[in-house]
Amino acid sequence: MAWSKNHQGPRAARGYGYAHGKLRAALLPSAYGKPCSRCGLLMLPGQELHLDHDDYDRTKYRGFSHKACNLKAAARMSNMVAKLGRVKINKPVHRW
After folding, report:
1. Cα separation of 78 and 80, whole Å?
2. Within 10 Å of residue 23's Cβ, how many Cβ atoms?
3. Which contacts qualify for 11-18: CB closer than 8 Å, 24 or more apart?
4. Taking residues 18-35, what's their average pLDDT?
5. Strand, helix or coil at 64?
6. Around Cβ 20, how many Cβ atoms within 10 Å?
7. In whole angstroms, how far apart are CA 69 and each of 45, 50, 51, 65, 90?
8. Is 75 helix (H, G, I), strand (E, B) or coil?
9. Which one is predicted more confidently, 51 or 58?
10. Angle at 95 between CA 94 and CA 96, to 5 degrees
């Protein structure tokens, strides 16, 4: 599922269903000590981690990332989509 302006809805429809939870639980212990897929810094025990989806194709995973890195990327994408929705294209500009 690609990113869309209407990304609200059931968790499973957004890529966070039962299969996602099982995969995350199975892979989480091996994520610690490896670099974050967003910032490149090490992920340490005690830090909250997310199993991160690809920005443009939510059927793919980037790997694990820090919770803050993933949420920052999601906010950036959401703001970009909202901004593009407000852009008026091919509208005349009146300069009085």
Report:
1. 5
2. 12
3. 14/58, 15/53, 15/58, 15/59
4. 94
5. strand
6. 16
7. 16, 9, 11, 6, 36
8. helix
9. 51
10. 110
- In SS3 terms, 3-62 reads as CCCCCCCCCHHHCCCHHHHHHHHHHHHHHCCCECCCCCCECCCCCCEEEEECCCCCCCEE
Q: How does pLDDT run across 6-23, given as a tens digit for each residue?
A: 555 677 777 778 888 999
The residue assigned the tokens 């809805």 is: 9
Residue 52 tokens read as 């991160």
What's the token pair of residue 25? 């639980």
| Dist. CA 88–CA 14, nearest whole Å | 28
Rounded to whole angstroms, the Cα distance separating 23 from 28 reads 8
